[in-house]
Amino acid sequence: MAAVTSKGQRLWNRMLVATVFVLVIVFLAPLYWISSTAFKPRSLATTVPPTVVFEPEITPFIKLFTRRVQMRGEVDPEVYEEAEWYEKRVLDAGERFIKDADGNIESSGYWSRFLNSIIIAVTSTFLAVAMGTLTAYGFSRFRMPGENDWLFFILSTRMLPPVVVAIPMFLMYRAVGLVDTHVGLIILYTAFNLSFSVWLMKGFIDEIPTEYEEAALVDGYTRMEAFFKIVVPQTATGVAATAVFCFITAWNEYAFALMMTNSKAQTAPPYIPSQLGSGITDWTVIASGTFLFLLPVAVFTFLLRKHLLRGVTFGAIRK
Amino acid sequence: MAQIKLENISKKFGRQTALSDLNLDIADGEFFVLLGPTGAGKTTTLRLIAGLDAPNAGTININGENVNEYSAAERDVALVFQYYSLYPHYTVRQNLEFPLRSKVRRLTEQDISASVARAAKTLRIEHLLERKTDKLSGGEMQRVSIGRAIVREPRAFLMDEPLSNLDAKLREILRAELKDLQMKLGATFLYVAHDQVEAMSMGDKIGILCDGHLVQVGSSQDIYNRPRDTFVATFVGSPAMNLFDATLSNGKAVVIPGSLEIPTSGEAMNHLRERAGKVKIGVRSEDILLDSSGPLEGRIHGVENHGVEKVVTLRVGELLLRATVPARTVLELDSPIRFAFNDKKLHCFDAASGQNLIFGD
Ligand SMILES: Nc1ncnc2c1ncn2[C@@H]1O[C@H](COP(=O)(O)OP(=O)(O)OP(=O)(O)O)[C@@H](O)[C@H]1O
Ligand SMILES: [Mg+2]
After folding, report:
1. Whose C-alpha lies nearest to ligand 1, atom 25?
2. Partner of B119 for a Cys bridge, out of A168, B147, B232, B294, CB 3.0 to 4.6 A?
């Protein structure tokens, strides 16, 4: 960067900084809203104007994982005395757990939905990245007739908005019994992500000089061994970037999850809003569910941030 | 070890012909140098032998066996690439071990570490073994590349300008080491050089490649003293051979009528006495002798000092000739000077085809 900057440039820089600042606020505000609501007492969740300073509590999360009913009247002091700390929190809020015959607290559906989300997003990401990398390697290293047409065909699967195929997909899924199964959603998300994965990975693999693999071939390795020992480690950055994007897509997908699943394989996105309807809406519970739902993507992205940065600027950084 | 034979090899990349009808015969234990200008097809030749590309026509034989259908791994040759091909995510040691860990070899850990230690010692890279390869200098990388070839015992070594990125001093040392290594192993080497000094000093045999054709194969003396055509004559030697037009008639080669005429009675030109017509005469710079009683006269146009010798540019009419003289010769710019050609060492080429008329076949 030049040491001497003209007045105009400085003004320009300031405007840029200001713009970025405004954008950051615009993007972070909803995030702050949902995170803070997740820790609010229910009474403060809907105040106007919004409450900014409050004592955070964990009650919404306890409520999130359990089934409860509104109590009529006061709580029996004896019951209150014997209750565990988490039960007390709920009783304080004027609700009580629904228990089964053995006295165990019944859990809400959230945890199993969350697990479904993880299983489906992780598996479909793995499949999309693995198949995408192999396909991209083939396109990058071998010449074949109509290569560009094939690549275009792969891309074209993303040109229609997915909802257009929703009804035929649903009918097909129903016919083969894939509705409300993990496999069904995994196939669907893998297919969504595959074209993206192929294109992104091809860009990364094209950057790797072929000499590396050729040296391995001459050194006595097969093409497959060369691919796994040389190409894959070399393109770790590309794999990481592609994986993050595929994971986010699969994790956040709403429309198909809503349509294709209802209980067994339901993921978190359609589940969270389904809680809006039952009884009087407890926004703190919705917020805590959303807050937990945001965490995996944040963690995943954070772990791979180094690769992501290179992934976004790929081609620009070269040895 | 192995003998390599290429028969009628052609290789095209799309419409571009990289090699056409190439025949090459490398004996067992020979140090064969392939020399040629950029784009001549040297790398392509090595890649075909290594099995990284397939020829459009022709056969490749190793030890008398047609290996056209063999994979690179099955051919069991080592290749040092022109550009770095060290695995960047490995250390130097892992790079050296890599060829030994191939499933086709099945070596014990002891054998592997012994081979790595031996190669590292030969190339003096022992202190670098634990270093990541992207933290090496260009010269160190090239040593490691060579090391990766010599850790195992392949049937032949193919090296694509392995010394091109080194400074002159290191290059000289490594040149000697490689030559030494080849003698010690008795290995077959096919070595691509860009630099003729390298080719001359290392090769048992040199093949000159130009535009995908093998122009001449021979010992370094052969190539230097008996160039088959004007391309070889000017490509090999520094400064380049002086080459000028002349007309043969009446037992004389007339370059500039009256002032530069060469009688064909000399040893080299002798059997061209009967010939007439346009030719090109070639004289190496060291075969122009400054001699106060010489038959020819010119002016001193320029002098370059090269240390042990000087290269003098002489001007005769419009013609510039470069001569090598001992450094202590006193020369004054623009002064007239007499000189002679060493008539045993004159070359004469056909003006149209460029073929050597004296040593041609
Ligand atoms: N993969 C390729 N695709 C298209 N053309 C190629 C390819 N590889 C080589 N060529 C062409 O073939 C010819 C010979 O190339 P080659 O690399 O063998 O030259 P070289 O003698 O090794 O040159 P240099 O001394 O510059 O390394 C060149 O004209 C080159 O452009
Ligand atoms: Mg080359």
Report:
1. B38
2. B147
Q: Is B134 an interface residue toward A (CB < 8 Å)? A: yes
Q: Which of B230, B255, B281 is where one domain is finished?
A: B230
Nearest chain A CA: its distance from B213 CA (Å): 25
Taking an 8 Å cut-off on Cβ atoms, the answer to whether B83 and A211 are in contact is yes
B246 and B202 in a single domain? The answer is no
Q: What angle do CA A147, A151, A156 make, to 5 degrees?
A: 145
Domain count, chain B: 2
In a domain, B103, yes or no: yes
Question: What 3-state class would DSSP assign to B323?
Answer: strand
pLDDT in tens for each of the 361 residues of chain B?
689 999 999 999 989 999 999 999 999 999 999 999 999 999 999 999 999 999 999 999 999 999 999 999 999 999 998 886 788 889 999 999 999 999 888 889 999 999 999 999 888 889 999 999 888 888 888 889 999 998 988 999 999 998 887 788 878 888 888 888 888 888 899 999 888 888 988 899 999 999 999 999 999 999 999 999 999 999 998 889 999 999 988 888 888 888 888 888 778 888 787 788 899 999 999 999 998 888 899 999 999 998 889 999 999 988 999 999 998 888 889 999 999 999 888 999 999 999 988 876 5
Determine, yes or no, domain membership for B191.
Answer: yes
- CA dist B19 → A62, A230, B57, B258 (Å): 76, 30, 10, 46
Contacts of B54 in chain A (CB under 8 A): none
A305-312 helix and A283-303 helix, angle to the nearest 10 degrees:
70
Which residues are B245's β-sheet partners?
B280
Same structural domain, B20 and B125: yes
Ligand 1 neighbour B41 (Cβ under 6 A): yes
Asked if residue B72 and residue B202 are part of one domain, the reply reads yes
Question: How much is the pTM?
Answer: 0.81
- A269 contacts A296 by C-beta, under 8 angstroms: no
